[in-house]
Amino acid sequence: xxxxxxxxRRRWNTAVIVTAVLTVLLAGAMLCxxxxxxxxxxxxxxxxxxxxxxxxxxxxxxxxxxxxGAVFSGMAFGMAGFVFQTVLRNPLASPDVIGISxxxxxxxxxxxxxxxxxxxxxxxxxxVTGLCxxxxxxxxxARNGFSxxxxxxxxxxxxAMLGAVISWVLSRTSEYDVxxxxxxxxxxLTNARMQESLTVMAVxxxxxxxxxxxxxxxxxxxxxxxxxxxxxxxxxRLYPQVIAAAVLLVAFATAAVGPVSSVSFLAGPxxxxxxxxxxxxxxxxxxxxxxxxxxxxxIGQFLMPARYPAGVxxxxxxxxxxxxxxxxxxxxxxxx
Amino acid sequence: MSENMVxxxxxxxxxxxxxxxxxxMTMTIPAGKISVLIGANGCGKSTLLxxxxxxxxxxxxxxxxxxxxxxxYGPKEYARSxxxxxxxxxxxxxxxxxxxxxxxxxxxxxxxxxxAAADYQAVDRAIAVMGIEAIADRNVDELSGGQRQxxxxxxxLAQETDILFLDEPTTFLxxxxxxxxLELLVRLNRENRTTIVMxxxxxxxxxxxxxxxxxxxxxxxxxxxxxxxxxDEALIREVYGMESxxxxxxxxxxxxxxxxxxxxxxxx
Lengths: 336, 268
Description:
Radius of gyration of chain B: 19 Å
Number of helices of chain A: 14
Helix content of chain A: over 70%
CATH superfamily of chain A: ABC transporter involved in vitamin B12 uptake, BtuC
Largest interface: A-B, 27 and 33 residues
Shape of chain B: globular
Number of helices of chain B: 9
Low-confidence stretches of chain B: none
Oligomer: heterodimer
Number of strands of chain B: 12
């Protein structure tokens, strides 16, 4: 292997190791910190099953679900963003920009407030809605020849419309339901519950394995659909498969911690910036997503004058990056 | 490389978006030879190429590779036999020449496994044959058009197919690079016995480098033969609707087309 190729590979490995270590450290910090600080030793003893009064409750009942929710929803958001940005070959095309995330929230809010549903059926309806909305956006963009730029603009329009739907539903929601529906609207880990956290963990692991098996095929997409097809990429099967996986990831992550804004949008670009592109950035994107959610939640809890939900912190990062992308894309004279 | 598989179309109707561009085509691609498709813009050359590469629908008739219908092949299986270099492929950002050439090994890879020794060998061989060792670690997006075209062909080489289709491989290249690329393809054909089928716009270069010429007009095949046997003023008139004189290439002895145009416009 030439020194340059070795350097590229080392960069990728370093990025994965650093983000993985960071994930573990931040996750550990999340178990230690709270109203009362418990040292790593106490946390380990509690995790091994020892009963320590007060610490056991805080760590197992409050902090563990929150930490698992943060790690695995972060990974899920990161991978979903990676898939959308890769398939649509555009950094703007993440599910939280083109209305996919909002559609899962709108469906959940509608189920809870208007239909009075609860439990697993809510994320299930979100997934189906997310898939339908993806398909509708695709079909609208495919009229008179598919255009990626048009798809993104249509997605942004759909995003706005669904936002209006959410407001309308909320305006006629009883006070009791508002608490339930808020979970689907603000990215916050405060109400993370063990059941949803374990569900998103399972979905994230399964999604990661599936997407990992498709990582090389997804890398062919940047050569163009026709070229990818002649290289054996089976694009017509690949697209629906990976998009469905991404929508599933978004819906279950949102069910667990709400739409933590901009994580999908930011994880992929951060990952390719730090790891380079010598290998698939699927894994670095997942880890970047986890680090973003963990760090945002810790910052929001402990480093701000008041307690802010994680989504507010990530939103602070996402907004300027969106502006930056729009400005630089315009400068290059591209049509998004 | 194995015995070259024969590819042929029988009563093929093909096109895209429900439009039939090629109504009824029957042809056999000469195995182990260089074939060039010529014809005016919009005559269906690219459509035919894409039909052979399974990128366009087959509305009627069949295309066979070996003794099987091409639609019966799995995607990777087909990509191990038939490769295609599109006209102007998208250049991915931030990846090196070697990484790009490695994409040609996709049809040989298992979903959850890394690269095998055979993959590394094929990539090294392709890079050596195309003479791009010196730029193998550069980023593809930094290269000139001519260098880039060598990289794309190296990718196709790494794919190790029996048949390689190229859609206008010399477009956007200056004349010296055009000759260089075409001569590399000739070498590839002679040394590996790779069947090459390409669309070329320059009829004089086509006449020089093709073993067989396929002249097309409005989705139909007009004639197929060795260049020296078919290029004459009548054919050029029929294919391009243009008057010309044919002279003999002083170096290669192949036919050379001189368009007549409107001489009074330039010289009194």
